[in-house]
Amino acid sequence: MIQLKGLTKRYGTFTAVDAINLEVPHGQLFGFLGPNGAGKTTTIGICTTRVLPTSGTAIIEGADVRTQSTLVRQRIGVVPQRPNPDSSLNVRENLVFHAAYFGIARSIANSRARALLEKLGIAERSEAKVMQLSGGQQQRLMIARALIHEPRVIFLDEPTVGLDPQARLDLWTILRDLHSQGRTIVMTTHHMEEADKLCDRLAIVDQGKLLAIDTPEALKARAPGGTMIELVLDGSGEVLMRDIRAVPGVSSAEAKSEHGSNSVRVYSDRGGEVIAALVTIATAHARAIRDIHLAPPSLETLFISLTGRQLT
Amino acid sequence: MTAIVTDVAQRATAGRIFLALLRRDINVARRELPYFLLRTTLQPLLFIVVFGLLLPRMGYVGSAYKAALLPGVLAVSLAFSSVQSVALPMVADFGWTREIEDRLLAPISIELIALEKIVAGVLQGLIAALFVLPIARLIMGPIDGLTATHFALVLFIVLLGATAFSVLGLLMGSLVSPQQIGLMFSVIVAPMIFFGCAYYPWQNLSVFPFMKYAVLINPLVYVAEGMRGVLTPGMPHMDLRAVSAALIIIIAIFWTLGMRSFSKRAMG
Ligand SMILES: Nc1ncnc2c1ncn2[C@@H]1O[C@H](COP(=O)(O)OP(=O)(O)OP(=O)(O)O)[C@@H](O)[C@H]1O
Ligand SMILES: [Mg+2]
Predict the structure, then answer these.
(1) Alpha carbon of residue A168 to chain centroid
(2) Which of A11, A212, A242, B230 could cysteine-pair with A204, CB 3.0–4.6 Å?
(3) A150: CB partners within 8 A, 6+ apart
(4) Is B17 close to A50, i.e. CB distance below 8 A?
(5) Is the CB of A42 inside a 6 Å radius of any atom of ligand 1?
(6) Could you report the predicted ipTM of this complex, rounded to two decimals?
């Protein structure tokens, strides 16, 4: 069980994590979804006793990260965003020593290390130097390291970044296994499909704030009016807005202009049927359409409407 | 009742975890031993060749100088292998690799993680000194008044000196950025060696009274003088009680400052 109350982290005057309240019950697979700089890594850093909160509390399995950090560390496994294996040790030793740091006897550690390396598909690299591993293989080693002491709570910061599609699916299987063993899992991701398919519950965060928290199904149901259609134009879309809003089936629309790129974002109750009308309106106002992006109601459309930003 | 039981169980594992951390450092040090010895003892040994062999043979320095030089050179080896073996990996760890992260996640207090680094540094200092002693003796030939009869006292001074410099390594390693490490060694460490009374007894600095008292801020002075006191007691040397007191104070100060900056760097 994880309880965050008013959790805040400031760097100088900048607020990286802004008064986050949330609870992850025992055994849940919980996801943080948010754009770059949202504060995901900082939040995980606080939960794993590696960053001191400025204010608020974080309780992990009943232990306070501030006053009982040793107890917290005893109960958690951590996969960092950037692999940081011990390069003075080989692959297998990375696991066996990490187990020893948790007081696990060598014989047990050895057999667990063998099984984990096998499971993560790097068994044949077990005597290799870690610097000879590819990025994805190092990432797998980090996952094995987080599991070697069989922690009750596992934190994974973007664990599938850098993994090939097969390895990503393998990791999903591993996470589902751990989940079915009743472990609590907290992960961050930029990957909508991953969040949707894997997580019991999701928190959408941006600029340090918790914007929404619910099951993927409930969040999708909250996605704004139907299909999102985004038109990228060669000029400002403001002049089109009045006509677009009048198109039957359009529930809402807004023009955006960012970094010299202009676009119009339209939510439609009739799926892609309104596209023809949109094209006509654009042509009538002498705007050329550079690109069209169409998304059914999904986490992605919710995410965009909450943060104003695309995730991938 | 339960609380007490868990508390005892935890304390038992803290010891085990500490030993596991130490085992990791010893393991790594053992693999790098030849490079380590080369890096930390070559310079003192070259000094022995020039000042303990060549110059006495040429008649520029008296052979009594050897008895002043040997303890000093041992002090340099001890001190700088201790400080380097703690500081160098730490600078890389905090600078860019973040490899120490897997140990910072160990369920043990951060003070014990730092203390383990100190113990590993002391062991490496001891090894360097034990390596230099017989070679130096071999190069210099017989040394008047060299004695190892006060073995416990020798060990005591050696441990205090190695601890002082390992703790200094903790402070430097957590304070200095990778870009500054070269500068640190040439600006701080080199003057420390030359003004550390390693190559001359402190008492003889009476010819430069200002310098005699200025060098007292240099921790190496106490290690060198202490080594003289226990290895060649016939040479002029500081009172061993003063040496011990100074080293203990230095350890306390460096530990307080070092622990503060280590915690700061360790926490993101
Ligand atoms: N040590 C630090 N000092 C100053 N600012 C920091 C520090 N660490 C993080 N930040 C800032 O805090 C904000 C949140 O960073 P964080 O790493 O938590 O984001 P994130 O959600 O993990 O992003 P990403 O998806 O890119 O990994 C960022 O704007 C970052 O610049
Ligand atoms: Mg991050």
Answers:
(1) 14
(2) A212
(3) A112
(4) no
(5) yes
(6) 0.88
